[in-house]
Amino acid sequence: MPASFLVRLHVIGTSWVALGLLTLCVPTVVCADEADPVFDVPALLATPLRPKILKRHVGEGIITEEVQFHSEQDGNQDVLIFAYFSYPEGQKQLPAYIWNPGGLGQASPAYTQAGARRGYATLCIDFPQPGYRSTGGYPINSGLILEGDPRQAPIYHGAVALLKAVSYLESREEVDRDRIGMAGSSWGGFFTTLMVGIDSRLKVGSCLYGTGSLELGNAWWDGNSRNGRTPPTPADRERWRVTLDPAARLARRKTPIAWFTGTNDQFYFLSGVMRTYELAAGPKRLTLVPNWDHALPQRLHDESIFAWLDEHLKGIKTLPTVSALSVQNEGNHLIARWWVADEVESADLIASFGESGNWRGRYWHTFPATIENGECRAELPAATLPCFVSGSVVSKTGLRSSTPLLRVEAKELGITATVAVPSYDGCSLWGGFEEPQIAYLDRHTKGGQTRWNPKLSADAKEGEQSAILPVGDTLLPPILSTATVPHRLTAWLKAAEPVEIALFLGGKEQPFRIGTEWTEIALDHTPAISPLGETTVVLRVPATANVLIDAIRFQPR
Prior knowledge:
Elements: H1 5-8, H2 41-45, E1 52-59, E2 62-74, E3 77-88, E4 94-100, H3 109-117, E5 121-125, H4 154-171, E6 175-185, H5 187-198, E7 205-208, H6 219-222, H7 234-241, E8 257-262, H8 270-279, E9 284-289, H9 298-314, E10 326-329, E11 334-339, E12 346-353, E13 365-368, E14 370-372, E15 375-380, E16 387-394, E17 400-402, E18 406-408, H10 435-446, E19 455-457, E20 466-469, E21 472-475, E22 487-495, E23 499-505, E24 508-514, E25 519-525, E26 537-541, E27 547-556
Parallel strand pairs: 4-5, 4-6, 6-7, 7-8, 8-9
Antiparallel strand pairs: 1-2, 2-3, 3-5, 10-11, 11-15, 12-13, 12-16, 14-15, 16-17, 16-18, 19-20, 20-27, 21-26, 22-25, 22-27, 23-24, 23-26
Helix pairs in contact: 4-5
C-alpha cells in the first residue's frame, strides 16, 4: 500500500459546487470561532429538563420506558417531548444513540428495542408535530419552510427537541455520556446531519438518505413534493444555506458522520449528498448504491447504520475505508484507481454519463474492478458525454463503502470517443418482472414510495413471469436514462381479446393495437435535462380488458 494512502483518504476528486443547480462559492457561514446564527445552544440547554418516566415494561431482558421531558418554552407554550427509551436490563454506562424515524413518524418501541438488543441504550422521540404525543404542534415534516425568523421555522423546534433528547440521555445512569450518537432515515437523516453540526456532545452521526446542501436541489423545492409552492429564489436558497441547512455547520465539527443512499434518491439529490460530504471536517463515510431511489437493499439498510455506530461508540470496525478516486489515460484507455485499507470481497466502479442534473432519472453503469495489494482498478468506457464516477468496495459481510464522485471527460484526458454513452437498459432493474426485479420494486414500496408493484402471470414473453396491467392508468416505475440522448422504449403486450391501449410518454399519447399473441410496441423519446430528469410512462387499459406486459426496455439508440 502506498505511503500516500492516509493522505489520499481526505482528497475530494472535484469541487462539487459545479455539480449543483446553482453556483455558490461563498464558504459556509458558521465557523469554529463564531456563535451560531440560529441556535443559542448554551441557553437552550440551560432550560429545565423535568424528566419523567410514565410507564415501564420488562421483557426478554430489555427494559422499555415511556418517558417525557421538557424541550422549550415557546411564548406561552410549554413544549413537552414524549419518547421511548430502551436498554438491556441491569446494565449501566452503555453506548447510546437517538433514532430519528423516516418521515419523522411517531416513536415506537420497535425502534428502541432493536438498538437495545444490540447493546445500546436507545431513545426515539415523538417530534413536536400535530397529533403526536409530544406537544408543540409544529408542521416539521411538511417541507423546507423558512419565512421570517429562522427560530420560528418548524425545523428549528425539531432541532431543539433533539438537543434536549441528548440531555435526557446524559441524565440517565444507563448511558455513558461520552458515547452518545444519533442515527436516522430520510427526514431522520436530515435531522441527524443537522444535529451533528449543532450539538458537540454527539460522538457520531449515521444517516440513511437524508443530507444537507439542499439549496442545490431537493424534492420540496424542485421535485415532486413541491405541493404547489413556487420554487424559492436564489436569495431564498442562500438564506436557507446559512441558517437551517443541515450542512451549514459541518465544516466546524470533527464528529464522524456517514451517509448511506441510492444514487437516484428523489428527495435528497446526489448533488446535495456530495456537497455535504465534502463539507464534513471529521471522519466520514459514504455508501452509494447505483440506480436505487429512496430505498436500499435489505442488508445495507439494516446493517450500515449500526456498522458506523459500532465503529465510533464501541470501537468495532466493519465498514471498509477507501481512498479518493483517480482516472487517467493509460495507453488510450480510461483507468480508474482507488485504494482500500481493509480486506474486502469485491470492488466495482459506477458511472453515469451526461451533465449534472437529472438526479433521479440518471442511469448508472456498474463495471467490475480488480483488487491487488489494496489497489482497486477498473476500466471506464470512453464516451463523448462527460460522466460522474465513484469506486466502491464490498466487505465480506456485504457492507459497501464508496468514494466521492469524480467528474471525467474523455476528451480532456486525450481520448477521442465515438459514442455518446455505452449501451444499457433503463428498465433493467424491474422491466422483466422476474423475482429479483419484483424484490427491487418491493423494497421501494416498503420505503414508503408510491410505486406500481404488479400482480403477476406465469404467461411470459421472456423468463418465468409477466405483469398484469390493471384497468385504467398505470404509471410505470421510474425509467432511467441519459439526458439529451435519443432512446427507444419497447415492450411486449398480450390481451385476452384484441384491444387498443394508449401509451403516454413525453407529453404525447400513442395508441397501440394489442392482439391475443405477444405484440411488440415501440416509441422513441429523448429525455430533457431537468432537476429530477424523470422519464414518465403511463399505460391506459380500457375497462374489461385483460392485458399482460413483459420485457420492457428503454435503451439509447
